[in-house]
Specification:
The complex is a heterodimer. By secondary structure, chain A is mainly α. In chain A, 66% of the residues lie in helices and 0% in strands. In chain B, helix 4 runs parallel beside helix 9. Classes of the chains: A mainly alpha, B alpha/beta.
């Protein structure tokens, strides 16, 4: 079920009413409803893959219980590795099997050895990369005794499959989300209103910004050989806003929907395109994944301790694994490696934590230096996204080489995109308006969070209606969220 | 909680009322689907020759030049599952029907409206033909199937500017033509657009055709298959496997059921002046095709009469 679908628009109010009016007397019933609704939400897409979630839930719940009663270090290790193997096994089979097989065959063919092996015709279960990481974090935290294992199977099931964040995050830590299922929820008016406001903003980002940018990004990337450098730059910029609007929009809807039920999820995006260096960008982009890798991969590898080579090795590992997490394609690996190259000078010179707060905090505009830093970081990010979006490495290299040709000085071929270039100008104007709203709200959790205390009620309502009208005005056919495929 | 529900209700009520009003206004704009459905309800017992299919028929068959009472019941992007639905919907009304003429084009056996980029048109069959093809709200409302921008301009055009939204003639043939397109460019684009990645719909399409054939046999109606003419810039951009599979499949079905099949894809009597774009005829080309098919029907009738004992 897509967040931007009519199905979800019907599903959410029904679950909301049942949650607060029918099962509001009992915690068990509230959690059971969450589990049932989440399974329905997921099964709407493909009910067969529910078995994977249920199996993963059973395994990690049992391992948590066993870890609690087991004192032997070796046995505890075996239990932890069982959890890792099951979760990574699912991920490896469904997501990476064909990639490794194809590369294995290619490598042998290169040396003149022919291998006959058939690729598997497997569908990638939606959200598998998200919920496997979530359950893994539980097992690891219990193993490390950072968290007491739960004995409430319903609460644990609800933690694993909580529908707002089941298929595309934020990847919640058990330490944050699981305890929220231990207490009966009481309706909180301001939290619910804030949730609705965040949902609205998420829908705007997805439907108005991402889906409209997607139209041009797809056209330019899919026919890149037909366009000159300046148009290709425009294509990369469109994709930059598409992926941000798409994914951060999803996160806003997920966080907002959770707040309707009284749950607080972690912030997943903190205005990443207003970053002054790449280190800051990675503290603001897909925060739940970055911190997951930091805590469960980077730090166990030694983190920043050790010598220069260890720092270089760990930086590359974390960025490349993070790239590979997005999909079984070399383009994601190169995207990760490129970000490691961007990040490394900051890390080695200990400047990676120079820009911690919000840019131009308390001011309307950034200083010239900050503006330069913002533009440079944005430019580097746009460049890296080319690898992320390209079909393969060859496509990305051709795309980039055309950008660095004379054609960069030609004017973009706007009129060839559609019947009229007016639509293109409208979309570019929308991006500018979007950036202004985001800039004004950059010190909050999401851009329009400030509306509640900055504007009078009538003005606020006008703003909400304007956003709703723009959503319906610019909407096309329901589009899949990009991160569903990861 | 009461405060929350009250506020949401007050916030949503104006929007819901406006939405309902717009839906009402949009549904009351006359369109091709509504027109053809009404025509079929009132005249299906008089029709002798029924033409079904997609835009190739819509722009390619002009019933006014065909002998007898014929009707063009095609719509843009209408796939054969919908052709079958139309036949079945009026199953008791085809009193005078002698021929059902179905185009089997390059994409026909593999294409379904429901999973194409044109799937927004499904709502027309649900709303105006009363088919129940999907339960999705977007397939059952005018307002949600298109964006607000388009809906408002549609309401303004019809109610304030008196623009007409019926784009077909009395007998169902297109009477509003788009501008001519470059034949080379449109051939490449249509070739890519009509080529499928897999042939997963083939078996279902064969079943649909068999169902049409058995219905026709039971009701003493003849089925005629043909492949529409197209300009060489389109034909040369088609996938050979998909094309061969289409021709082989329909030839086999026609042979097994003693049905006439005419492959006009590369018919030399059509030239560049007959096309609006590489795979759609213009008015001149449509007249030529309509007369040709009328002749073919007549000839197949003569052949059948001569062959009968």
């Amino acid at each position: 079920m897509l967040f931007n679908s009519i199905d979800f628009a019907i599903f959410l109010p029904i679950v909301f009413i049942l949650y607060w009016f029918v099962v509001n007397k009992s915690l068990k019933l509230q959690n059971s409803l969450i589990v049932a609704a989440s399974y329905l939400f997921y099964g709407w897409w493909d009910w067969r893959f529910l078995s994977l979630i249920i199996f993963s839930t059973l395994v990690d719940y049992s391992i948590g219980v066993l870890l609690n009663s087991e004192e032997s270090k070796n046995k505890r290790k075996i239990l932890l590795w069982s959890s890792i193997l099951v979760n990574i096994g699912f991920l490896g089979y469904f997501k990476y099997y064909n990639f490794f097989l194809d590369n294995f065959i290619s490598a042998f063919t290169f040396f003149g050895i022919e291998i006959n092996a058939n690729s598997l015709n497997v569908i990638l279960p939606v959200g598998i990369s998200f919920y496997t990481f979530q359950t893994l974090s539980y097992s690891i935290d219990v193993y490390k005794k950072k968290l007491d294992p739960t004995t409430d199977f319903i609460a644990f099931s609800a933690f694993v499959c909580f529908f707002p964040q089941l298929v595309a995050g934020p990847i919640e830590r058990a330490t944050n989300l699981l305890p929220q299922f231990y207490h009966k929820k009481k309706f909180d008016y301001s939290m619910a209103i804030d949730g609705l406001r965040q949902i609205l903003w998420g829908l705007f980002k997805k439907i108005v910004i991402a889906d409209n940018c997607a139209e041009y990004a797809n056209l330019i990337f899919n026919n890149s050989a037909d366009f000159g450098g300046s148009t290709l730059v425009l294509g990369a910029i469109f994709f930059t806003f598409q992926i941000y609007g798409d994914f951060s929009g999803y996160s806003d809807i997920a966080i907002g929907a959770s707040r309707l039920f009284g749950f607080n999820l972690s912030q997943n995006f903190a205005f990443p395109y207003f970053s002054r260096d790449i280190a800051e960008f990675w503290r603001r982009w897909h925060i739940s994944l970055s911190t997951w890798f930091r805590d469960y991969l980077y730090i166990p590898l030694g983190g920043s301790r050790g010598g220069i080579w260890m720092k270089i090795r760990n930086t590359f590992i974390i960025f490349i694994v993070s790239g590979f997490w997005h999909g079984a394609n070399w383009t994601f690996i190169i995207w990760g490696a490129l970000n490691a190259i961007y990040f490394l000078p900051l890390r080695l010179s200990n400047k990676n934590r120079n820009n911690i707060g919000t840019v131009a905090q308390g001011k309307n505009l950034p200083s010239l230096k900050e503006l330069y830093q913002l533009l440079l970081t944005f430019g580097l990010t746009v460049f890296a996204w080319i690898f992320f979006r390209a079909k393969n490495i060859e496509h990305a290299l051709r795309y980039i080489s055309e950008i660095f040709s004379k054609s960069i000085f030609s004017s973009p071929k706007g009129s060839s995109f559609s019947e009229t270039s007016i639509h293109l100008i409208i979309i570019l104007s929308l991006i500018v308006v979007f950036l202004i709203i985001e800039w004004l709200g950059r010190e909050k959790q999401y851009a329009i969070a400030q509306l509640s205390n900055k504007l009078s009620r009538p003005l606020r309502y006008v703003m909400y209606y304007a956003i709703i009208i723009s959503i319906f005005w610019f909407s096309g056919k329901e589009q899949q969220f990009i991160y569903f495929q990861f | 909680m009461k405060k929350f529900i009250k506020k949401i209700f007050l916030f949503l009520v104006p929007m819901i009322l406006i939405a309902l009003l717009m839906e009402f206004l949009l549904r009351n704009i006359p369109n091709d689907y509504k027109y053809k459905k009404d025509y079929l309800i009132n005249n299906s017992n008089r029709i002798n020759k029924l033409f079904l299919g997609s835009s190739h028929t819509y722009y390619g068959i002009n019933p006014s030049v065909i002998s007898g009472n014929s009707f063009n019941a095609s719509h843009v992007s209408q796939s054969i599952d919908l052709d079958l639905q139309i036949i079945k919907k009026y199953r008791n009304n085809w009193k005078g029907l002698e021929y059902i003429i179905i185009p089997i084009d390059y994409f026909t056996l593999f294409f379904r409206l429901s999973n194409s980029v044109e799937s927004w048109r499904l709502k027309n069959y649900n709303l105006y033909y009363d088919f129940q093809l999907s339960n999705k709200l977007s397939d059952n409302t005018e307002l949600i199937s298109n964006n607000l921008n388009l809906n408002i301009s549609k309401i303004i055009s019809f109610y304030l500017q008196n623009e007409k939204f019926i784009t077909c003639s009395e007998l169902g043939y297109a009477n509003k033509f788009k501008e001519n397109k470059d034949l080379v460019k449109s051939g490449i684009e249509a070739g890519i657009r009509h080529t499928v990645e897999d042939f997963s719909n083939l078996d279902e399409s064969i079943n649909i055709l068999n169902e049409m054939i058995s219905f026709a046999k039971k009701n003493d109606i003849e089925i005629i298959f043909y492949t529409s003419p197209a300009y060489y810039t389109y034909v040369s951009n088609l996938n050979v496997n998909q094309l061969e599979l289409t021709i082989k499949t329909i030839t086999k079905i026609a042979d097994n059921n003693d049905i006439a099949y005419f492959n006009l894809l590369e018919d030399s009597s059509f030239n560049s002046s007959d096309y609006r774009d590489a795979d759609h005829l213009n008015q001149k080309g449509a007249k030529k095709l309509s007369l040709k098919i009328d002749d073919m029907i007549l000839n197949s009738k003569i052949l059948k009469v001569n062959a009968s004992p």
